[in-house]
């Protein structure tokens, strides 16, 4: 195809060059004929001989004209009188005959030049009037240059032109061959149909898979983004061609995709989604980033953590209950009945006091149940978990599940922070300020250095060992995202005991009215630590389960 195009361009260029050259050579021949005619008519002797001598094949006018013809290599030099009769001709026998073309223009005083046909065939002609010494027109001079001579010059130039054109064609062919080989190497010897098929397959694959794909060029502009990536990142197809930072804005998502954060299986939060990103650089300094939605997996992981916490709480209660039963059995076997009654009363009173303290200050049943469960887990781990005296949260929570997520993450982080600390302690504060809910969790751990107080809320930032089901560094990021989505904030400062104090403000977490339904149920025998929650929690109907 390249050779055909090169040949066509060469032929076209040659034709475009020959066409004006032919016209240029014709014009030169006509001007040369006109110049010879003008110089002939300018000789006074010619006009004098025309008036004083007869028209004869061997007359002086014929002889003078032939001299000029031979000197100028013209085809003919014809001198005519006012009647159009020839007084000279390259064929002497035609002297005395009338000219074959119309002589009216030169005899009327006008000079002409043209390509025309006469007795000698086609020629380039120039005609001028012949004047005497007084300026009167006494005849005309017609000079012709054979047209075949012009054509011969043109044809003589054509081989040279084709030689140059052929050289250009050879150079073009070599260049086309080199370009073709280079393209074949770059396209792995794939034909155009194969490339087209691969492109169609790639488009179908990229827009059909359930993983997000984002391709960047060397300038970190989005070169490709498939449908799943648009859904996960919350962007549209118009993002193609725009800088990544302009589309996503500042944040961890842009840093991970741009490569400013390195590693494998990097976690980031986009809206309410938890994404796992992997980045592969390309040869042109760009990159291809794959995104997987792990929101469901992370939710299941958090549910697993919650279930493990509940199991730990139940295990702790079972262990504690077994120890008390053994103690109770021993006291009874020893006959120490009064001591047994006092022991049971003290044990029940401690649990009841804890549950009553929580239920009195936190009216929402889900949050109260969470705190009671976390208190048991904390006791098992040797951590003192208490509710601050200023805690007052009415039963007006709009999104209890969201607050449970926030509070659960903060308490878990606080419990982890107190590992290995002497006299570990965690204090929880929940209070209302109008429609706003303020949650504070402080611990006696090592605290958070000032330079890391913003980094702790980034996706994937953690100092903990990852659990079995996935990576850490998501809890605090989700806490801040949940707070910011409701127009609130999440901050960390230094606690009173030297550890960290996390504060979350949710402006519209409470409704204007108290919920009318309160869940009540009789407490099962022996469950002293749940009896205090009897006005805020009820068992599910038969056939249902509850945790």
Automatic annotation (TrEMBL):
Membrane topology term: Multi-pass membrane protein
Catalytic activity as recorded in UniProt: ATP + protein L-histidine = ADP + protein N-phospho-L-histidine
CDD domains given in the database record: HATPase_DpiB-CitA-like (cd16915)
Cellular localisation: Cell membrane
Enzyme class: transferase
Chief localisation class: membrane
Cited InterPro entries: HATPase_C_sf, HATPase_dom, His_kinase_dom, PAS, PAS-like_dom_sf, PAS_fold, sCache_3, Sensor-like_sf
Pfam families assigned: HATPase_c, PAS, sCache_3_2
Signal peptide bounds: none
Keywords, alphabetical: ATP-binding, Cell membrane, Kinase, Membrane, Nucleotide-binding, Phosphoprotein, Transferase, Transmembrane, Transmembrane helix, Two-component regulatory system
Transmembrane segments: 161-179
Recorded superkingdom: Bacteria
Annotated protein name in UniProt: histidine kinase
Region of interest called Disordered, as start-end residue ranges on this chain: 443-470, 513-547
Molecular function terms, GO-annotated: kinase activity
Domain spans labelled Histidine kinase: 378-510
E.C. number(s) listed in UniProt: 2.7.13.3
PROSITE patterns linked to this entry: HIS_KIN (PS50109)
């Amino acid at each position: 195809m390249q050779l055909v195009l090169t040949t066509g361009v060469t032929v076209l260029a040659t034709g475009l060059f020959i066409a004006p050259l032919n016209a240029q050579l014709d014009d030169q021949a006509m001007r040369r004929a006109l110049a010879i005619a003008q110089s002939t008519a300018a000789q006074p002797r010619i006009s004098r001989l025309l008036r004083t001598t007869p028209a004869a094949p061997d007359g002086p006018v014929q002889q003078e004209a032939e001299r000029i013809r031979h000197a100028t290599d013209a085809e003919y030099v014809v001198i005519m009188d006012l009647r159009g009769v020839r007084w000279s001709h390259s064929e002497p026998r035609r002297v005395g005959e009338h000219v074959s073309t119309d002589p009216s223009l030169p005899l009327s005083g006008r000079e002409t030049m043209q390509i025309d046909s006469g007795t000698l065939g086609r020629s380039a002609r120039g005609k001028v009037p012949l004047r005497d010494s007084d300026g009167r027109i006494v005849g005309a001079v017609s000079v012709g240059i054979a047209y075949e001579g012009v054509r011969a010059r043109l044809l003589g130039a054509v081989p040279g032109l084709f030689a140059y054109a052929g050289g250009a064609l050879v150079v073009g062919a070599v260049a086309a061959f080199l370009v073709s080989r280079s393209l074949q190497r770059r396209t792995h010897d794939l034909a155009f149909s194969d490339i087209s098929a691969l492109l169609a397959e790639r488009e179908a694959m990229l827009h059909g898979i359930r993983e997000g794909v984002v391709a960047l060029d060397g300038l970190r502009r989005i070169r490709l983004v498939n449908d799943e990536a648009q859904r996960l990142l919350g962007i549209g197809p118009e993002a193609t061609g725009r800088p990544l930072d302009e589309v996503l804005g500042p944040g961890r998502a842009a840093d991970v995709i741009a490569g400013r954060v390195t590693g494998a299986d990097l976690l980031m939060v986009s809206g309410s989604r938890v994404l796992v990103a992997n980045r592969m650089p390309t040869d042109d300094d760009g990159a291809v980033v794959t995104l997987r939605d792990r929101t469901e997996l992370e939710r299941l992981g958090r549910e697993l953590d919650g279930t493990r916490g509940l199991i730990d709480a139940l295990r702790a209660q079972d262990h504690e209950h077994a120890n008390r039963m053994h103690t109770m059995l021993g006291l009874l076997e020893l006959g120490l009945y009064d001591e047994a009654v006092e022991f049971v009363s003290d044990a029940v009173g401690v649990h009841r006091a804890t549950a009553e303290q929580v239920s009195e200050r936190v009216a929402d049943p889900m949050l109260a149940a969470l705190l009671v469960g976390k208190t048991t887990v904390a006791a098992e781990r040797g951590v003192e978990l208490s509710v601050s005296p200023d805690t007052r949260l009415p039963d007006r929570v709009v999104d209890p599940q969201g607050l449970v997520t926030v509070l659960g993450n903060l308490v878990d982080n606080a419990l982890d922070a107190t590992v290995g600390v002497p006299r570990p302690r965690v204090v929880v504060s929940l209070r209302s300020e109008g429609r706003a809910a303020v949650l504070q969790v402080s611990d006696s751990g090592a605290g958070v250095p000032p330079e890391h107080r913003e980094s702790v809320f980034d996706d994937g930032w953690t100092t903990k060992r990852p659990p079995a089901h996935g990576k850490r560094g998501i809890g605090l990021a989700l806490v801040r995202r949940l707070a910011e989505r409701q127009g609130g904030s999440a901050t960390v400062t230094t606690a009173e005991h030297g550890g960290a104090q996390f504060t979350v403000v949710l402006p519209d977490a409470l409704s204007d009215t108290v919920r009318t339904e309160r869940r009540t149920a009789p407490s099962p025998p022996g469950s002293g630590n749940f009896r205090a929650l009897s006005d805020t929690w009820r068992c599910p109907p038969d056939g249902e389960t509850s945790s």
